[in-house]
Amino acid sequence: MLMEEGIKKLIDQEIRPALQSHGGDIEFLGFDEASKVVRVSLTGACGTCPFAQETLRVQVEQVIKRSFPDVAAVKREG
């Protein structure tokens, strides 16, 4: 649970403000401890943007993996 809380905090403090500055947002949906996969939903402008997958890879996954190298992937749902 400590890793999940850390990921949530990172999203709130670093990732969410960057996405909100472009009219989007991110919702943390969960972290699977067994597979080490973080699940998120991109909303607002990010939810419909044709570059959402790139945003997920560069602005979300890389930031999370830099702080939590054990994370295997970040998956977008919704």
UniProtKB/TrEMBL annotation:
<dbReference type="GO" id="GO:0051536">
    <property type="term" value="F:iron-sulfur cluster binding"/>
</dbReference>
<dbReference type="InterPro" id="IPR034904">
    <property type="entry name" value="FSCA_dom_sf"/>
</dbReference>
<feature type="domain" description="NIF system FeS cluster assembly NifU C-terminal">
    <location>
        <begin position="7"/>
        <end position="74"/>
    </location>
</feature>
<comment type="similarity">
    <text>Belongs to the NifU family.</text>
</comment>
<dbReference type="GO" id="GO:0005506">
    <property type="term" value="F:iron ion binding"/>
</dbReference>
<protein>
    <submittedName>
        <fullName>Thioredoxin-like protein</fullName>
    </submittedName>
</protein>
<dbReference type="Pfam" id="PF01106">
    <property type="entry name" value="NifU"/>
</dbReference>
<dbReference type="InterPro" id="IPR001075">
    <property type="entry name" value="NIF_FeS_clus_asmbl_NifU_C"/>
</dbReference>
<dbReference type="GO" id="GO:0016226">
    <property type="term" value="P:iron-sulfur cluster assembly"/>
</dbReference>
